[in-house]
Every structure is written in C-alpha cells, then in structure tokens.
Specification:
The chain has about 210 residues and is α/β, with parallel strands linked by helices. The chain has one domain: Rossmann fold (3-Layer(aba) Sandwich). It has 8 helices and 7 strands. The strands form 2 sheets. The protein has a 5-stranded parallel beta sheet with strand order 2-5-1-6-7, with helices on both faces.
Length: about 210
C-alpha cells in the first residue's frame, strides 16, 4: 500500500492525546489502536486480556525489571514466569502485525520505537499542567490537587516504561518525534487537523490520494 498511513501518538496524561488520536483516525477513516491492541496481543499470546490490561496500566506495581508470576493469568500453564521483555515483545508483535496489514493510528506503548524501521509519523501531544489538571478534574470529578497527583504519577509511569524499553531518557523529548504539539492551543479537533495537515505535507500526499 503506497499510501498506507501509520501515525503513532505519544502523550502526556491529561493532554487529550487519546481523543486527538481518535479524531485523526476518524477523519482519515482508519482504525485507532489502544485498548484494542492489548486484547489483540492477549489473543495471540495465550495470556488473558485481564492480565495484559493490568500490567499495561499498572506496570510500576509489577516492577519494570522484575520477574512476574503470572499464575492465575496464564491460560495453559500456571507455573510459567514471564519478564517485562517478553510482555513488551508480545505487544510489539501485535503492533507490527497490525501496522503490516494497513493504515492505523497507534496510541502510546512505545509504538514509535517499535515501528522505527517503518514509514511513520511520530507525534507527541502535550499541554501545560493547568490545562491538564482542568481536563482530568472535570473528566473524573476530582479536585485539582488530586488531578495533579494523578498526572504526575501517570506521566512517571509512562516515562519509566518508555525510557526503559528505548534504552534512554527519551519520553517526550522533541528530537525523538516528527511533531510535538500543545493540544491546549488548538483544542482536540484543531490538533487533529494539524497532525493530518502535517502528515500530508511531510509525505507529499494530496487529499485526492486518500
């Protein structure tokens, strides 16, 4: 597919990055993979979706460099052990398999690194802390202080995960992405439009070719 579109979107917590990714995918008429990616990885690996979702959202509680006792989560052999490298491989295989089949938008999970040998547009969505606190507080019905604590915790988890897997201090560093954008300036819809315009310019694609 000469015109295959692969866009990866990393994001700060509370920046609206997932909403931006969804808007981009809807405009382009292509799938967006986030939670769906976990379920797909589970289906192909023999692990339950429950385990992969838990380990993906709360990796710090498992220990990024430790060994994981899968016990009750392993479908066939409760005695199996798996480390984080294996979990990353499972998700990486799922990402690469989906990317090989057609156009897609991937949210998080170090997908830009996983697909580094493919033609992709790698985007990082960020926003000022005040804007993120307001978004998270409104969405979850919590105080601004609680929102800030959650943001700091979530961002740390994402950074630790990404930096470990990419062997460096790389998460959110502008030089590691093709485009970094502050979603508070244009809003969700405007940010999605900007990403699409950037993609068309960067890859010299006319609207009629989509």
């Amino acid at each position: 597919m000469d015109n295959k579109i692969i866009i990866t979107i990393g994001r700060q917590f509370g920046s609206g990055g997932k909403s931006v990714a969804t808007a981009v995918a809807q405009r382009l008429g292509i799938p967006v993979y986030d939670q769906e990616l976990i379920l797909n990885a589970a289906k192909n690996s023999g692990l339950s979706p429950e385990f992969l979702k838990k380990s993906d959202e709360h990796r710090s509680s498992f220990g990024l460099r430790g060994w994981l006792d899968l016990g009750r989560f392993w479908h066939n052999n409760p005695s199996n052990l798996m480390d984080d490298n294996e979990l990353f491989r499972i998700q990486s295989d799922a990402i690469r398999d989906l990317a090989s089949k057609g156009s897609a938008v991937f949210v998080g999970r170090a997908s830009d690194y996983v697909l580094r040998d493919m033609k992709t547009l790698d985007v990082f969505v960020h926003a000022p802390m005040d804007a993120r606190k307001a978004r998270v507080a409104e969405r979850l019905g919590i105080s601004q202080q609680e929102a800030e604590e959650m943001i700091l915790k979530k961002d740390k988890g994402r950074k630790d995960y990404y930096d470990l897997l990419t062997f460096g201090d790389n998460w959110g560093v502008a030089s590691n992405y093709d485009l970094c954008v502050d979603s508070s300036l244009l809003g969700i819809e405007g940010t999605a439009d900007l990403i699409i315009r950037f993609w068309r310019e960067a890859f010299s694609v006319n609207s009629s070719e989509l």
